[in-house]
Specification:
The chain is mainly beta. The chain contains two helices and 15 strands.
Length: about 180
């Protein structure tokens, strides 16, 4: 009998305390997102994983790194990096202020900035209008917007991805110098 009285009282208390359709004055707007300095906002990607389920990491334009970077899910890189950037299953965004000197290996990449080195994307590689790449690209699919600068060789499709995964880093034409 005591349980019945307590549960009835609790239900009545909750019903009495709930305001009828009044908005919470202290609630933050749903669209509010944290601001990270003056870094530009990059559009959401259309990958198989939902962006809300992914862990987003950001390296802003005032960061300089010498060495290797590895990440798991998503990285927005707007920094200066001298070294390798690796992720077997991750999505990389190379921001407009980014300067990468080294090799990039990831699942998918969108490039707004500058890369001096080879790039391997097992699924998708997108070069946006202001992107500059000096190096070879291997990707499942490759998209290059008008205005992007790309100096190197590209291998696109399942065979390119398979050869990249097998560790074959040299193409037959790379043994002779380009003139």
């Amino acid at each position: 009998m005591l349980k019945k009285i307590i549960s009835t009282t609790n239900e009545d208390d909750y019903a009495a305390e709930e305001p009828a359709a009044e908005p919470d004055a202290y609630a933050e707007p749903e669209a509010a997102q944290p601001s990270y300095g003056s870094s530009p906002s990059y559009p959401e990607t259309s990958y198989s994983s939902s962006p809300s389920q992914m862990s987003r990491n950001i390296l802003s334009s005032d960061v300089k790194i010498k060495g290797s970077i590895s990440f798991g899910e998503e990285l927005i890189l707007d920094a200066a990096v001298e070294g390798e950037v690796n992720s077997d299953a991750g999505h990389l965004t190379v921001g407009e202020n980014a300067r990468v000197k080294g090799e990039i290996k990831t699942r998918a990449v969108i490039v707004y900035g500058k890369i001096d080195g080879n790039l391997t994307a097992t699924e998708r590689c997108e070069l946006k209008a202001d992107a500059e790449i000096v190096g070879d690209i291997r990707a499942g699919t490759l998209s290059i917007e008008e205005g992007a600068a790309f100096m190197g060789q590209s291998s696109v499709g399942a065979a390119a991805v398979a050869s990249a995964k097998s560790g074959s880093s040299s193409s037959p034409s790379s043994s002779s110098p380009a003139k």
